[in-house]
Amino acid sequence: RIYLSGLVGFLLVLTAEARVGNSSQLQFCTETEQCLLFDRICETDKYEVRHYDSVKWVSTDETSLFMEIAAMRAFKRLFNYIAGANENGKKIKMTAPVLVKISEDKSFWQMGTYTLSFLLPSEDQTNPPKPNDNKVYIHRMADMKVYVQTYGGWMTSMSDKNKASSLSSALDLVGAEYNKGFHYAVGYNSPMTMFNRHNEVWFVVGDDPVCPSSEELES
């Protein structure tokens, strides 16, 4: 019985760590060794629904008119942290994706606060080193389900706004419940990558996810 409970505990640890895992498990995560893994719940021709386990991120907030400017400043801050600007002077591996949390009540020509987050690799999930910069912080994101729409090219304020609008329209059409207060702009590529870029927009599922089939939509 002790052996069995130990084995179950070991498997639970393995499972928990595996949610930040080998990027070879995702065909669009090609530039980092580790990536945020997920379970696909369902999909339609407009979006998919994924489940993500609770994991830790290193984040920073930046206020600007445009996501691009905020992301540039915030990225530098977070990059310094993983390059060794932390209490242990430890270099931390880059992972994917990078998240930008964007408020939905911001109009295009209005200052907004953007939260940029790097996923911590599996070896730093349990006890990540404390950032030296007081604008950088570690936080645990709750276990969540998200509605996802993917797109290529460059992730800009305009492309993100268009895709977020496209996804919310598709969700409204089927009466899906989701958090309308914010969405995530999600990037998987280095700024140096010119082709085959993979971006996503996420809305957090509010209730039971809705995934009607094409037959249901037609009826």
UniProtKB/TrEMBL annotation:
It is found in: Cytoplasm. InterPro entries: Reg_factor_effector_dom_sf (IPR011256), SOUL_heme-bd (IPR006917). Keywords: Cytoplasm, Signal. GO terms for cellular component: cytoplasm. Its main location: cytoplasm. Pfam families: SOUL. Residues 1-18 form the signal peptide. SUPFAM superfamilies: Probable bacterial effector-binding domain (SSF55136). One of its GO terms (molecular function) is heme binding. The keyword Signal applies. Belongs to the HEBP family. May bind free porphyrinogens that may be present in the cell and thus facilitate removal of these potentially toxic compound. Binds with a high affinity to one molecule of heme or porphyrins. It binds metalloporphyrins, free porphyrins and N-methylprotoporphyrin with similar affinities. Monomer. This is Heme-binding protein 1. It comes from Sander lucioperca.
